[in-house]
Structure formats: C-alpha cells, structure tokens
Design brief:
Elements lengths: L2 H16 L4 H9 L5 H8 L6 E3 L22 E8 L2 E8 L10 H17 L3 E5 L10 H17 L5 E5 L2 E3 L1 H7 L3 E5 L4 E3 L3 H8 L5 H5 L1 H7 L5 E3 L2 H13 L23 H4 L12 H8 L6 E3 L7 E8 L2 E8 L10 H16 L4 E7 L6 H5 L2 H14 L4 E10 H6 L9 E4 L4 E3 L3 H8 L1 H6 L3 H19 L3 H5 L5 E2 L5 H12 L17
Parallel strand pairs: 3-4, 4-5, 5-7, 6-8, 7-9, 12-13, 13-14, 14-15, 14-16, 15-17
Antiparallel strand pairs: 1-2, 2-3, 10-11, 11-12
The structure holds hexanoyl-coenzyme A (HXC).
C-alpha cells in the first residue's frame, strides 16, 4: 500500500465513523428534534476545539447477531475540548448506534477520558442518550457501568461532573448521571428511569407513560433529580457553559474572578422597602438576590423543586458565589424535607469546590406535622445543619426577617462557623414567633381569664412584650451572634467587602476517613 492509500484508508475510516448508525437512524433522531451526538459536542464546546479519542473503537462481541452490527465509535463519542478557553472532557452517547447502549468497549472509552480528566484536573460533561446496558453483552456491559460508577465516585468532589440528559435514559444511563454534580434535562425527548414503563407494567401492573414516569416535568418538579430544565438542546448547552463559568476546574483551584463593571457600592433603595409591614406578608426573595448580585445574573438550581428555598450561582464584583435563600413567597419559606435536601446538597457542592456561600435568611422554622415527621424531617433537616457546619468556605449570612427556632441555627448561623453574620433592622431572631410563644408560655394564665375581651387584650400585650424583646436583631447582636445590623440598601457593598476580607480565610475539619452525614 502506498502512503496515499494509507491516508485514503484513514479518511474512509473517518467517514465511516462520522456516518454513525446510518442515515435512516440519524433522520429518525432529527424527526424528533434531536441533534446527533457529534453535533451536540460542537454546540457545547468552543468552536474547533474538540479532539476526539477512540473514533475507531468497536465492540468485540458476536452474540445475538452483534457480529453483524459493527459501527465505528461503538455508540459514544469521547474526547476533550474547551469552554471559554478552559479544558473540559466530554462524552456524547449516540442513540443511532444500538440505541446508545453501553458495551464493554464503549465503557472503556468513557473510563479513559474520566481517568485523564482526573489526572489533568478538568471537568467532565456527559451527554446522555442511551438505552442503558447493551443487553446482548450481558455481564460485560454491567461491569462496564460499574467501572464508570466507580470513576464517578472517585472524581466526586475532585472535578466537576455535569450530565445532560437529551434522550431516553434507563438503567445505568441514569445511575451514572445521578452520581454527578448536576443534571440538566431537556424539556422534550428526555426521560430518566431506572426501569422503563414496560417493565413497570410487568412487575407492578402500573400503567404509566414514559413522560409521566420520567419526563423533565417529573424530575424538575417532583423528584428533584434534574437541576436544570432546558427549552431546547441549544439552551441546554448554554446553561452548561454558564454553569461552568462559576466553577473552578477542580477542588484544588478557586473559581475564576472575572472583570466586573457593575459598581460595587451600588445602593438599592428598593431593599429598604422590600420587607412588608406585617411579618406574615410574603415577598419575593429573588428580588433581593437580583438587586444585590452582579448584573442581576442568577443561575438558579432546581428552580421548580422545593421552591421554598432558592439555591443558585451568581457573582459579586466578578467573584462566583453560591446563594441559599429562604423564599417567603412559597410556603412562607419554611424548611421541609425537600428544601433541606436541596440546600444541603448545594451547600456541600459549593464547599467542595471552594465557592463561598451567601445565605439570605427569612425562615419561620421547620414545617410541623406527621407527614414531615414520618418522612424523616429529623434526618433530612440534619443534612442541611451538617452541610453548613462542615463547610469551610467563606460563609456570609444576612438575616432579612424571620429566623426562628432550629431553622435559625441551621441557616448559616454564627455557631455553625458563619464568618460574617449581618442582619437587616427588620430581622427577628427568636425561638419562635410571638403568637406561638405566648400560647405556650401563657397557657395557664390564659385559662384563668374568662372574659374574651380581656383575654384578647392580655394576649396582645404579651405578644408585644415578646416582640419587643426578640423581634429585632439587637438582642442577637448584643451577644455578638450578629456582627452588624446593616441598612438593606447597602447589602451589595457589605457582601463584596466581606468576600474580599474572607478571600484568604482558612478553616479545617479534624482528620477523618470521611464524615458520616445523616443520609
Ligand atoms: C441493546 C438497545 C437497548 C439496549 C435500545 N436498544 N436499548 N439495544 N441494548 N439496552 C436498541 C433497540 O433494539 C433499537 O434497535 C434501538 O436501540 C432503538 O430502540 P427503540 O426501542 O426502537 O427506541 P425507543 O422506542 O425510542 O425506546 C428507547 C428506550 C427503549 C426507552 C430506551 O429502547 C428501552 O426501553 N430500552 C431498554 C432499556 C433498559 O431496560 N435497559 C437496560 C437497563 S439495565 P434497532 O436496531 O431497532 O434500531 C442497566 C443496568 C446497569 O442499564 C446497571 C445499573 C445499576
């Protein structure tokens, strides 16, 4: 063979690899509004930055007719490229080849890039569109998944791992994303389930559609499995790119501070008026967030799940932070099981990747009642408590209004190593609200008053006395639990100055094999 022949052979092979599972299957993907595996990589990465590995890989199985179904790449495209100039590793599952199902060779390709990403210290992004373990390969494909899971676990907390779900994903194809840090699902065509509707029907008799069992709506609102939902694939890739802009490359680096023209001393007068006169009246805490962060740019995580707590990424004078805020607009901002789990995971992620945590507190307490107790609120609430107490990144807490009971302790309190704790003048820091406190403390006395008017007067007097004592930030400030009471409109500037001061903060936890967070 001449050199020309060899080069032609290479070009032919490349052409073969680019043809994926064939024109018919590509067309059927397109008919659903889906991009091909390779197009997705190009949409995600900086233009021209992708370098592919293992394009010529194939499976090595003969069973169940697989010998007649050989495709170069074997159903997954892997390699590296850049996003905003920073290296990322990527794999993209190709549904046109045997339904994107995972074989031994396919697993090896993913493991190769994961191993390299860990050595290089760069994020991994997985684009998932797969029927799970390749049924014809049996135990070899199960082993392949386990190899990936093990790497997901080892990489956890070392490099960011992001997953996009852009097609039907079942079995191992959902457990690997579940081990990563963030899951994005596309509104259309994306499904996640451990077992699909057909298996559900056979085993439990449940009749349920694919959408109802594991669509984006289910995982965005009910299960909380998906952190982001995109309207279309293009938006999905933009979200992933944006998300990476808040993250460091690995746990040994700090997130990148960018130039910022939004004035650091921008005063927001609306904040002086945002807290309603009555303390049971709701307001939207996101209005506070938008007013204080750079350019009002907030990337919210799990927006439609446990909306009583808001979590997301933003920047202050170009410095990335994680924000956790109670939402008075939804269930009065109460902490329940889902809110605790949501925020705990977010706080732990931020801590693992050196992202300071800003906490905005307006919380009436933990949600009482049997539904929460039977569901294990004790353990789930403890997760959030644990996450805050364990975190060593800079922690800045601003109490906007209510900070009652156990929820006060949990939400970045001084005693959980809050570094700088500010309060607005509207803050109320107490074991519980005046109404509840008077009912408990004055129960006996109230019983002895028979005249309803007198009783009402007595209650109001006692509530006022309790309010005077605790419904303000100064009692807490007198003990140093609050470092300063600040004017709301100065909040942006105070946070930026606090972040600057805390930039060199060091805090350590005692040596241990690993912690035992209440799972
Ligand atoms: C081999 C598969 C496959 C699989 C799909 N295909 N899944 N081939 N192994 N797991 C093939 C189909 O035979 C078909 O081939 C092509 O991919 C497209 O599949 P369709 O069924 O036609 O597509 P669609 O109707 O869109 O349905 C997609 C699907 C469904 C929902 C993903 O295919 C499905 O339910 N697949 C099985 C899912 C599953 O139970 N996987 C095993 C999970 S166990 P042709 O040649 O016709 O184009 C697992 C264990 C891991 O993963 C460990 C976990 C801890």
């Amino acid at each position: 063979m001449t050199i020309e022949d060899n080069i032609q052979k290479l070009l032919d092979k490349r052409e073969e690899a680019y043809s994926a599972g064939g024109e018919k299957r590509i067309e059927s993907q397109r008919a659903k509004g889906k991009y091909t595996a390779r197009e997705r990589i190009h949409l995600l990465l900086d233009e021209g930055s992708f370098e592919e590995y293992d394009m010529f890989a194939t499976h090595h199985s003969n069973e169940f007719g697989l010998d007649k179904q050989q495709f170069l790449t074997d159903g997954v495209i892997t390699g590296h490229g850049t996003i905003d100039g920073r290296i990322v590793y990527v794999f993209s599952q190709d549904f046109t080849i045997l339904g994107g199902s995972l074989s031994e060779s396919y697993a090896k390709k993913i493991c190769k890039i994961m191993d390299q990403a860990l050595k290089v210290g760069a994020p991994v992004i997985g684009i998932n569109d797969s029927g799970g373990a390749r049924i014809q390969e049996g135990v070899k494909s199960l082993a392949g998944y386990a190899e990936i899971f093990q790497r997901n676990i080892m990489a956890s907390g070392v490099i960011p791992q992001l997953s996009a779900i852009l097609g039907p994903c079942a079995g191992g194809a959902v457990y690997s994303p579940a081990l990563t840090d963030f899951i994005l699902m596309n509104k259309e065509n994306a499904y996640m389930f451990v077992t699909g509707p057909k298996v559900a029907k056979t085993v439990t008799g449940e009749d349920i559609t694919t959408e109802e069992l594991g669509g984006a709506d289910v995982h965005g609102k009910k299960s909380g499995v998906a952190h982001f939902i995109s309207e279309d694939e293009e938006e999905g890739f933009l979200i992933l790119r944006k998300l990476l802009s808040f993250l460091p490359q690995n746990n040994m680096e700090d997130p990148i501070t960018t130039d910022c023209e939004d004035p650091i001393d921008r005063k927001e007068d609306l904040l002086n008026e945002i807290i309603p006169d009555t303390n049971t009246k709701p307001y939207n805490v996101k209005d506070v967030i938008y007013a204080i962060i750079d350019y009002s740019e907030f990337l919210e995580v799990q927006r439609n799940y446990a909306a009583n707590i808001v979590c997301g990424f933003a920047k202050f004078n170009g410095m990335p932070v994680g924000i956790v805020a109670n939402q008075p607009n939804f269930l009065a901002g109460v902490l329940d099981i889902n809110a605790s789990r949501k925020a705990a995971r977010f706080v732990r992620f931020c801590d693992g990747f050196n992202i300071p945590i800003i906490t905005l507190v307006d919380v009436p307490g933990f949600l009482p009642g049997s539904a929460q107790e039977y569901g294990g609120i004790i353990i789930h609430g403890a997760k959030l408590l644990y996450a805050y107490g364990e975190a060593t990144v800079p922690k800045i807490t601003i109490t906007l209004r209510k900070s009652y009971g156990g929820a006060h302790d949990v939400m970045g309190s001084k005693q959980l190593r809050g570094d700088i704790n500010y309060a607005w003048p509207s803050a109320e820091i107490a074991v519980m609200g005046p109404e509840g406190a008077v009912e408990i403390l004055e129960g006996k006395n109230l019983k002895s008053i028979e005249n309803p008017e007198e009783k009402e007067k007595y209650i109001l007097e006692k509530e006022a006395a309790y309010r005077d004592k605790f419904a303000n930030p100064f009692e807490a400030a007198s003990y140093g639990f609050i470092d300063d009471v600040i004017e709301p409109r100065n909040t942006r500037f105070r946070i930026i100055r606090a972040l600057k001061v805390l930039a060199t903060k060091k805090d350590v936890n005692p040596p241990k094999k690993h912690s035992n967070i209440p799972l």
